Amino acid sequence: MDHDEARDWLAARCGENLGPPPGFFSNAGIGDPVSMMLRGAPASAVRLSPLACALIYEGESEVTKRIVRFSRGWFDREVCYVSAFCTLRFEPRLFRADRMVELIDLGTGEIIADAVTFFEGFGLSRKDDPMRATLRRAKDGLAVLAAIAASDGVVHDEIESMLRFVDRVAELDGVMLGDADFARIGVALTALRPSAGHAAHAYDRLAADPAVLRLLGPAIEDLVAADDRLSFEERRAIEALYGVAA
Q1: pLDDT at residue 133 is higher than 60
Q2: Predicted confidence band at 11 (pLDDT cuts at 50, 70, 90)?
Q3: Which own/partner pairs from 114-120 qualify as long-range (CB within 8 Å, at least 24 positions apart)?
Q4: Cα–Cα distance between 147 and 189 in angstroms, integer?
Q5: Is residue 165 included in any domain, yes or no?
Q6: Could you tell me the superkingdom of the organism this chain comes from (predicted)?
Q7: How many domains in the chain?
């Protein structure tokens, strides 16, 4: 920390009501570093600006004192993340709330010991994103389907079959996915190339979710019919998976 930041930190720690921290611009627009960072925040992220705080942060290898201007906050798999402009590094940064040892609101002087609870007060929800929840439930089935589809080195028409499988899994939980969701999932599926061993383990794990397992058989039939042929490689992949002749 430089001299000015250290002075501000000490003043905040004593409870004084300070003005905006270094780097704060009340009329910041799209050129603001924090605004540029927002592209990485999920649509469900909650706006936190113009919240400015001093904090003690426990990183991977060191504990630091920083003054930051928070921008967005969200939960991902029970972990609370907040994006902010950090005046220690003088660039946008992403922080985990559970690593904030102490947080001081520079607007009020309030000292906050539980950062996660503090951010929940702004409306951050632990509720899981429906699409993420669906993909987690469908991932083992998708690994099996992707391994079969990629066994002959060509994955194109099969993508639609895998998307239909995702849609059926979503229906199990009463989730309705939109066109934008399917477009994002489709892009990810084109790069999915699990090994035969990974697919076999994924198939074994499906025993814990019989409802999804029941969807897999019809999904494989749909996959094979997608390009109107069952290639030799696909046949071998199915035989290896089930241990029987396809």
Answers
A1: yes
A2: low
A3: 115/55, 115/80, 116/80, 119/48, 119/73, 119/80, 119/82, 120/80
A4: 11
A5: yes
A6: Bacteria
A7: 2
Q: Cα–Cα distance between 114 and 110 in angstroms, integer?
A: 12
Q: How far, in Å, CA of 211 to CA of 159, rounded?
A: 22
CA distances to 57, 71, 104 from 112, in Å = 13, 18, 6
In order of 139, 233, 240, the CA distances from 192 in angstroms are: 11, 17, 19
The C-alpha atoms of residue 231 and residue 246 are separated, in whole angstroms, by 11
Domain that holds residue 186: 130-242
Instruction: Identify the three-state secondary structure at position 30.
Output: coil
Report yes or no: 220 and 146 within 8 Å, Cβ to Cβ: no
Residue located via tokens 């220690």 = 88
Q: Could you tell me if 207 and 200 are in contact, meaning their C-beta atoms sit under 8 angstroms apart?
A: no
| DSSP-derived pairing of the beta strands 79-86 and 63-76 | antiparallel
Tell me the C-alpha distance between 139 and 212, whole Å.
10
My answer on whether 135 and 198 are in the same domain is yes
* pLDDT tens digits for range 155-192: 667 788 889 999 999 998 888 888 888 888 888 887 77
Q: What is the Cα–Cα distance from 32 to 43, expressed in whole angstroms?
A: 19
Banded pLDDT at 239 (limits 50, 70, 90):
low
Same domain, 8 and 116: yes
- Assess if residue 183 is contained within a domain: yes
| pTM score | 0.48
| pLDDT tens, position by position, 38-48 | 445 777 788 88
- CA proximity to 45, closest of 122, 139, 155, 158: 122
Residue 172 makes CB contacts below 8 A (sequence gap 6+) with 137, 211, 212, 215
